[in-house]
Design brief:
Helices cover 7% and strands 51% of the residues. It is mostly beta strands. The strands form seven sheets. The protein has a four-stranded antiparallel beta sheet with strand order 3-2-1-28, with no helix packed on it. It has a four-stranded antiparallel beta sheet with strand order 4-5-6-7, with no helix packed on it. It is globular.
């Protein structure tokens, strides 16, 4: 065999080994640590809970309390998998009108969290948190404070004082719920050039230019997309295609679809649809929104109707068609999460202290209960971390 042939076959062998290694890595990612953020005030919860989850079988193993901390409603895991960050949804952390943001290191063998430090969130009731792709900054939305802030992280995972702060000003048409600004979520575009912020009090989806190197936020031009008066935008989801974005409105019990230009950070409304059945007459507040990893289906949670509304997404138009609404088998599904495989949906029923697991039909988007429930006090948020 001549040299060129030997080189050719060597390349083939190396490619096959690399492919096998990749398949092995994919197989490994079917096992996860599952972290649950909760409310601890006036509940039996002690803080953040952790489970092992095998996505190949759908089985869960309870690992107990990962860390005791106050009102860790929403949590986020940095890209390295070494650190977890949580908000402390409080109004008086180290003084009035501020909650906290806590940092923890993760023990992958036990799932336990070790407290590193905590900083003031710069506004009362922080209710949403994300980490940028480099793991260098944590971004937080403060609901009662009506503002957002960015906090740098060190090589040791600890948080430092804010590098950016933006206070929202104004009010909406509802004097009880929209008497002031209420920043409810903050999300980054895939290239991290923009941050999108839902403000329930202003009926606006605000857009900021984000500098990941400096951890800075500057209002975009135009600075926001307006929603219908009184709907109260809460959470944001971006389609995998990058062409469309969706906002779930808490007070309007609706989802608004937008076309989006990720080069300019601009949005245009396309459609608003209800998340409720036409014959429902009770009180309801929408909560969470997620898009399936395949980009074909959108899910939104109803608190009051206590269901998950399932929609098909038109890939060309970005519009929504409702497929079904599925009872969450509990009360007040404050949030829910799709597992990384897209095969399971975890519905967090805050009032009934449980998380109910549904299987997702990959072809139709429909949900069916698996029969599994996690008993956990006042669950709010779920995040997955690949486990060894």
């Amino acid at each position: 065999m001549n040299l060129s042939r030997r080189v050719f076959f060597s390349i083939i062998v190396l490619a096959m080994l690399a492919a096998n290694l990749l398949l092995a890595q994919v197989a490994k990612t079917e096992k996860y640590l599952l972290y649950v953020g909760t409310y601890t005030q006036d509940t039996k919860s002690k803080g953040i809970y952790v489970y092992r989850f095998d996505a190949s079988t759908g089985q869960l193993t309870d690992l107990g309390v990962a860390a005791e901390t106050a009102n860790p409603s929403f949590v986020a895991i940095d890209p390295s998998g070494m650190y977890l960050y949580s908000v402390n949804e409080l109004q008086t952390y180290q003084g009035p009108n501020s909650g906290g943001v806590s940092a923890f290191s993760i023990d992958h063998s036990t799932g336990k969290l070790t407290f590193l430090n905590e900083v003031p969130s710069r506004g009362a009731d922080p209710c949403y948190i994300v980490v940028d792709k480099a793991g260098r900054h944590v971004l937080v939305a403060n609901y009662t404070g009506g503002n957002i802030a960015v906090f740098p992280t060190g090589a040791d995972g600890k948080l430092s004082e804010a590098t950016a702060f933006q206070q929202h000003v104004g009010h909406g048409v509802n004097p009880k719920r929209q008497e002031a600004a209420h920043a409810h979520s903050i999300d980054l575009s895939p290239d991290e050039r923009f941050a999108f912020v839902d403000d329930l009090g202003l009926d606006e989806l605000l857009v900021y230019k984000y500098d990941a190197a400096r951890g800075s936020l500057i209002p975009n031009q135009p600075p926001y997309a307006k929603l219908d008066p009184g709907v109260g935008p809460r959470h944001f989801a971006l389609a995998p295609s990058g062409k469309f974005a969706f906002v779930v409105a808490e007070m309007g019990s609706s989802v608004t679809a937008f076309s989006i230009d990720l080069k300019a950070g601009t949005l245009k409304p396309l459609q608003t649809v209800s998340t409720l059945p036409k014959d429902f007459k009770g009180e309801n507040d929408d909560a969470e929104i997620h898009i399936h990893p395949n980009g074909k289906f959108l899910y939104a949670s109803n608190r009051g109707h206590d269901s998950i509304a399932v929609f098909a997404i038109d890939p060309a138009k970005g519009t929504l068609t409702q497929i079904e609404d599925v009872p969450t088998q509990g009360e007040i599904p404050r949030s829910f999460e799709l597992d990384p495989t897209g095969n399971f949906l975890f519905a967090e029923n805050q009032k009934t202290d449980n998380i109910v697991i549904f299987r997702v039909d990959q072809k139709t988007g429909k949900l069916s209960p698996t029969g599994q429930k996690i008993e956990v006090p006042s669950p709010v948020d779920v995040k997955f971390l690949p486990a060894p």
